[in-house]
UniProtKB/TrEMBL annotation:
Annotated family: Belongs to the binding-protein-dependent transport system permease family.
Stored Pfam families: BPD_transp_1, OppC_N
Localisation: Cell membrane
Sequence intervals crossing the membrane: 35-56, 104-126, 138-156, 162-182, 213-235, 271-292
Organism: Actinoplanes flavus
SUPFAM superfamilies reported in the protein's UniProt record: MetI-like
UniProt keyword Cell membrane, yes or no: yes
Gene3D superfamilies listed in its UniProt record: MetI-like
Signal peptide extent: none
Annotated protein name in UniProt: ABC transporter permease
Superkingdom of origin: Bacteria
Residues annotated as domain ABC transmembrane type-1: 96-289
């Protein structure tokens, strides 16, 4: 018998004799969960707006005419015009891309850092765990908003749009929760019998980590990243609103909100619609993460 034959996912036969797995049970729960389907549909629509905006509007977000300044909704611009005479609907649709790009890239970066720190700390334990855990604690002690303002301001150049500066800033500051979840999952999984059996059969540490432990530690980790994606989108909008995020010719919900706030009493629609889209996007990703977490958590069964 080789360690390749070890069962690394908890399975049990059901009443019909077919094998059941955690993933199969989770998917069965998700299919019956209305919150999952609502959030999933919202996420799909948001991704389409981000990467195929022409499906939703043929207007140019950069085509502005001062003669249309602060005009309300009409047949040509269903969300009206902003203080520069730009189509609010077109700018809101095209603003999705920057927010989603920053959110996805920063979440992938945070996930990679969290995976490295959490897997190493959980598997090796001892001094490695102590050192990496202290590094994580130090990062948790950094005030997020203060750190984001300082890092983004230092990384952003005067001629770029700030996308990479904000992405790196959020990636560096938001990996700690993912690392903690991965560490806890690895510690729980490495005590399982199939890991001990693999070790007795002579499996190398690398094989144990990446073949047996990591795949069975990913469920909670993926859930955390899904929720983190929503919070990073909100963080990008916050930094852009404060003037240390996206800038220049970038089209972003945070920038739109910042520009519209001074004219809110004259015309509220340029402020309302980007805010609604931002809130719906963040809520969709958080609800999706919560639904997946509930499906994969055996305590809730």
């Amino acid at each position: 018998m080789s360690d390749a034959n070890l069962i690394t996912v908890a399975e049990a036969p059901d009443v019909s004799g077919r094998s059941r797995s955690l993933a199969g049970d989770a998917w069965a729960d998700l299919r019956r969960n209305k919150i999952f389907w609502i959030s999933a549909v919202l996420v799909v629509v948001i991704l389409l707006m981000a990467f195929v905006p022409s499906l939703f509007t043929s207007a140019d977000p950069g085509a502005c005419a001062l003669s249309n300044k602060h005009k309300g909704p009409s047949g040509g611009a269903i969300f009206g015009y902003d203080f520069q005479g730009c189509d609010v609907f077109a700018r809101t649709i095209y603003g999705t891309r920057a927010s989603i790009e920053v959110g996805i890239l920063s979440t992938l970066m945070a996930g990679l850092l969290g995976l490295i720190f959490g897997l190493s700390a959980g598997y090796f334990g001892g001094t490695t765990d102590a050192v990496l855990s202290r590094v994580t604690d130090i990062m948790l002690g950094v005030p997020f908003l203060l750190g984001a303002v300082v890092f983004s301001g230092r990384l952003s150049g005067s001629e770029d749009d700030g996308v990479w500066a904000v992405t790196l800033t959020l990636g560096v500051l938001t990996w700690t929760s993912a690392a903690r979840v991965m560490r806890s999952s690895v510690i729980a999984v490495k005590s399982q019998d199939y890991v001990a059996a693999g070790r007795m059969l002579g499996a190398s540490p690398g094989r144990l980590m990446f073949r047996h432990i990591l795949p069975n530690s990913m469920a909670s980790f993926i859930v955390v990243l899904t929720i983190l994606l929503g919070t990073n989108i909100a963080a990008e909008a916050t930094l852009s609103y404060l003037g240390v995020g996206l800038k220049g010719d970038a089209v972003s919900w945070g920038l739109q909100i910042a520009e519209a706030q001074d004219y809110a009493r004259i015309a509220a629609h340029p402020l309302i619609w980007p805010s609604v889209f931002l809130a719906a996007t963040v809520l969709a990703f958080i609800m999706l993460g919560d639904a997946i977490r509930d499906a994969f958590d055996p305590k809730l069964r």
